[in-house]
Design brief:
This protein has 225 residues and is mainly beta. It has one domain: Jelly Rolls (Sandwich), CATH 2.60.120. It contains no helices and 16 strands. Strands 1, 6, 11, 12, 13, 15 and 16 form a seven-stranded antiparallel β-sheet that branches. A hairpin with a 3-residue loop joins β9 and β10. The protein starts with a strand and ends in an 11-residue tail after the last strand.
Length: 225
Amino acid sequence: MSSFTISAPPSTDIWRKPPSTNRFNAPTHPLLSSGPIPLNLFKRVRITFSAHWTSLYDQAGILLHLTRSESAEPASTGTSDPGLSDRWLKTGVEYYMGKPFLSTVATQSYSDWSIVPTSETGGKTTIELRREVDDTGTSLWIYHLVIADDGKELERNPLREVAWFFAEEDEWRVDIRAMAARPASKEAVKGDENLVVEFERVDIEVGGTGLKFSSNESINLTLSL
């Protein structure tokens, strides 16, 4: 998987907001041919991508989609919490107020969005998500990386810590995907109708033994569970 492209048409998004918005129609591309894996095997994923951002909320990056393991039944709470069976996180670049930002949306019950200014107005962006453990517990950390032409990491800039991501991790599976979306309507799009995003340099680490996959390898995974 040296490189690939995702083309996102208008009116596509991944977003959950009360009282009733629950959109999940953005095009995605699987980064592991095995499909979802147990969340407790996830270690790290990194990807590089680029696009010509023109329209409000144009976005692309990495999607981690959590679903309940078949053996784990959601607890009965007497409420209609959408986060009981389906959670996700997306992070990358999003176009807002006329310029691209580094963006993260974490969705447990409902989506919350954070953005960070970036000096990268064009060219390639590299994002990494990784499991990290400290004396308070385990979190998912999101980083923006500055990469030299030879692939050497020059800077690692923290964007966000998501503390809930690995809670009750034995009950969840994670699907690791690249994603792109163009939430603007067809009439509101500026320029070409579809947002076209180029992806490359995929690096994934999973498993208790530190299995690693890169864009120079065939990313296939066999699990013994």
